[in-house]
């Protein structure tokens, strides 16, 4: 049977679906087209689409508590990371749930070879016409003006009522988010520099040497260990160039000139060395992760961020629209054998939490928890929009609201804010932070965050969620980083710089623990908050900005989170003091 015959057969089945329209329940529905997007023509019905279906299961709360337990010093299970098969068994839905979901796919004539069983997730690929019949919806091309990309999406979708109780979400459907590098603000874009004018004290430019001195990292090499891989995420066609790394290390970290990284391709991700596209983000991440971790095994996970885009005329192209990079990467990682997982994963991308369907953020956060359960320290930059960019809620109310960044807002990742300067080191004003609108404050944060809220009083009441997960957890330098990109010396900024630096700190701590026969640190936050500020420089100067009324956004005069004693939503617990952290890590 040819593909065209298969497609025509599917079209003839649209009117003979198992359930009628009246038997369907709306799973998700947007009140309007998200800001910044415009609706175009309908794409070709033959366009293949890959969907991720997430199922509900009965033990989500129990699983997340177990992750907290094995990550909390003093608990009897501390450090006893779970194995892949144990996590799969814990997360697998009941037989009834799985049977109902797979029976639906079978009744909708989804070929068995187009289905991937991932336990509590199912991936299936079908032509768009079939997807529209399955979900009683119409997909259209939607264009994003700022990034000039087109995505196939819908504003609502439905499933049979007997499926609905077991289904968490199907995406990409109503997900219009745009992951961005956290160096994407115009004021943070890289500029050419003369490195002869860079001092060695982190004042005119940040380099590995001044960071080691500032944070107390040793200049001796760590012992390479296959159990301590430092992973760096690459999305959106950002490529890490070996020649740039070599030239950077020759000048700024000559003792680690032999440092190298391997490349893992996910979903067709590439890492060409002759691309003319900007690779600032990848250069920044790789160069500082390797020079600061000093002899770590490093892997660059390049995940294809471009799915087939469709023009308004229906022409299919491989350029233009982003797909689901988090899901593609996460499902690859959670499927790896235990011995192949990275010990640390640093990611410098994010988007406004509200730009994503709630079910999507919840399901994705659970995948981060699964990595944490298996001993992976997942680290994200906290964003570069301060208290928020547009600061207008997209739920139809148009309320003025501070806007946190996801995945930094997930309670199972460690989010890293930004600082600048020395003596004193202070909060940088673009450091993303605040309080999640989706995730409740985890127990490990209660003491620290409640102390901040008590000092804050009623300031900014109504603009944020006092009961939400606080962001960030920690911080590091985020301005004036010197990098090498396409053979040029550049200077850049953003919390995307802070994340790989903190990831390198954790990689060094893991090396010390492994040397003493201890497991890697895994999910960090319960341990970090248990230290009662030990191992951190408390940042008490500066603050963030945001909600400045630009581009149609809301204006909140003097909007800011202030840096203050203890945890705060600009710099978290503070910046690392390696020697103290190593002592605490070895005693945990």
From TrEMBL:
Indicate the principal place this protein occupies in or around the cell: secreted
Coiled-coil annotated spans: none
What's an example GO cellular component term for this entry? extracellular region
Cofactor: bound how, per the entry note? Binds 1 Ca(2+) ion per subunit.
Residues involved in Ca(2+) binding: 538-539, 566, 568
- This enzyme's EC code(s): 3.4.14.10
Subcellular location field: Secreted, Extracellular space
Q: Which cofactor does it need?
A: Ca(2+)
Q: Which reaction does it catalyse?
A: Release of an N-terminal tripeptide from a polypeptide
> In terms of domain of life, where is this protein from?
Eukaryota
Record GO biological process: proteolysis
> CDD domains, from UniProt?
Peptidases_S53, Pro-peptidase_S53
Q: What positions constitute the catalytic site?
A: 281 (charge relay system), 285 (charge relay system), 496 (charge relay system)
Q: What class of enzyme is it?
A: hydrolase
List the signal peptide residues: 1-19
Job of this protein: Secreted tripeptidyl-peptidase which degrades proteins at acidic pHs and is involved in virulence.
| Ranges for domain Peptidase S53 | 205-588
Gene name? SED4_3
Descriptive protein name: tripeptidyl-peptidase II
Sorted alphabetically, the keyword list is:
Calcium, Glycoprotein, Hydrolase, Metal-binding, Protease, Secreted, Serine protease, Signal, Virulence, Zymogen
**What GO molecular function annotation could you give as one example from this UniProt entry?**
tripeptidyl-peptidase activity
């Amino acid at each position: 049977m040819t593909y065209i015959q298969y497609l025509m057969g599917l079209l003839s089945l649209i009117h003979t679906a198992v359930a009628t329209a009246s038997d369907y329940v709306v799973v998700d529905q947007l009140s309007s087209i998200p800001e910044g997007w415009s609706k175009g023509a309908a794409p070709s019905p033959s366009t293949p689409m890959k969907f991720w279906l997430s199922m509900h299961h009965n033990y989500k709360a129990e699983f997340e508590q177990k992750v907290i337990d094995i990550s909390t010093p003093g608990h009897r299970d501390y450090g006893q990371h779970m194995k892949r098969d144990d996590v799969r068994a814990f997360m697998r839905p009941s037989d009834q749930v799985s049977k109902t979901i797979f029976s639906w796919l079978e009744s909708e004539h989804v070929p068995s070879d187009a289905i991937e069983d991932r336990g509590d997730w199912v991936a299936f690929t079908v032509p768009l016409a079939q997807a529209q019949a399955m979900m009683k919806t119409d997909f259209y091309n939607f264009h994003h003006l700022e990034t000039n990309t087109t995505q196939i999406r819908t504003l609502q979708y439905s499933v049979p009522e007997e499926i609905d109780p077991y289904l968490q979400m199907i995406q990409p459907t109503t997900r219009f988010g745009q992951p961005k590098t956290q160096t994407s603000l115009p004021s943070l874009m890289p500029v050419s520099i003369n490195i002869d004018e860079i001092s060695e004290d982190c004042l005119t430019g940040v380099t590995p040497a001044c960071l080691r001195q500032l944070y107390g990292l040793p200049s001796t090499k760590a012992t390479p260990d296959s159990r301590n891989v430092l992973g760096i995420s690459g999305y959106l066609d950002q490529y890490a160039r070996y020649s740039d790394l070599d030239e950077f290390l020759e000048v700024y970290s000559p003792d680690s000139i032999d440092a190298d990284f391997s490349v893992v391709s996910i979903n067709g991700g590439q890492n060409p060395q002759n691309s003319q596209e900007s690779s600032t983000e990848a250069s920044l991440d790789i160069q500082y992760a390797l020079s600061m971790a000093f002899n770590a095994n490093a892997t660059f996970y390049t995940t294809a961020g471009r799915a087939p885009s469709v023009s308004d005329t229906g022409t299919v192209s491989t350029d233009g629209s982003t797909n689901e990079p988090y899901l593609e990467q996460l499902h690859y990682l959670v499927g790896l054998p235990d011995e192949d997982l990275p010990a640390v994963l640093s990611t410098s991308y994010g988007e406004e939490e509200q730009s994503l369907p709630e079910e999507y953020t919840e399901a994705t956060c659970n995948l981060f928890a699964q990595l944490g359960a298996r001993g992976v320290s997942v680290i994200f930059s906290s964003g570069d929009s301060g208290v928020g960019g547009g600061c207008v809620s997209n739920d139809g109310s148009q309320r003025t609201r501070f806007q946190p960044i996801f995945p930094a807002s997930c309670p199972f990742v460690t989010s890293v804010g930004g600082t600048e300067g020395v003596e004193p080191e202070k909060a940088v004003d673009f450091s993303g932070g605040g309080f999640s609108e989706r995730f409740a404050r985890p127990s490990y944060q209660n003491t620290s965050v409640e102390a901040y809220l008590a000092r804050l009083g009623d300031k900014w009441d109504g603009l944020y969620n006092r009961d939400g997960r606080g962001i960030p957890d920690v911080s590091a330098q985020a301005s004036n980083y010197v990098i090498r990109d396409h053979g040029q010396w550049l200077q850049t900024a953003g919390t995307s710089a802070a994340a790989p630096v903190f990831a390198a700190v954790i990689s060094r701590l893991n090396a010390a623990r492994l040397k003493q026969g201890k497991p890697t640190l895994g999910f960090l936050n319960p341990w970090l908050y248990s230290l009662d500020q030990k191992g951190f420089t408390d940042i008490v100067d500066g603050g963030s900005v945001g909600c400045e009324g630009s581009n149609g956004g809301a204006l909140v005069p003097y909007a800011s989170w202030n840096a203050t004693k203890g945890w705060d939503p600009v710099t978290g617990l503070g910046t690392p003091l390696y020697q103290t952290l190593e002592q605490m890590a070895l005693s945990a």
